[in-house]
Amino acid sequence: MAARESRGRAERKSNLTSKRETKAPTRRRKAPPSPAPIRPRDDRLPRTILASLENSKAEDVVAIDVAGKTTLADTMIVATGRSNVHVGAIADHLAKAVRAAGYPTPRLEGLPNCDWVLLDAGDAIVHIFRSEVRQFYNLEKLWSADRPHEVQPARAG
Length: 157
What we know:
The protein is an alpha+beta fold. It has helices at residues 2-22, 44-55, 84-100, 131-137, 139-144, and strands spanning 59-65, 75-81, 107-109, 116-120, 124-130.
């Protein structure tokens, strides 16, 4: 019985070595990753948003170019509504305008309270505040600040 087991092991071992020797695995080289295509910046979305905000009588509308400062969006727009109802109406009108312009349905946050509504339309993010809430958070100052390497030296005068 022991002789039979040792002979079986020897046959299996010879089968394994003969397959490895006859078939050499071929390795394929991975192609280097191609750089991400640079897509042209679409100014149609911010124009659509600004027109909608104007039609909705939003106040103190500020557009901030955040391209290069964040990967979240290229443009951040901040606007003010006179009341909670006005903030909600601006957000609803804006979401409909973005969809009508052929863009995907934007994601909305903050609609139940309407103190601060955030509309994420992909390449543009819109913050719609009540006046007191906007003053408290002061996003324009936060996002308009220069990055550390962009600070211009003060001129002696």
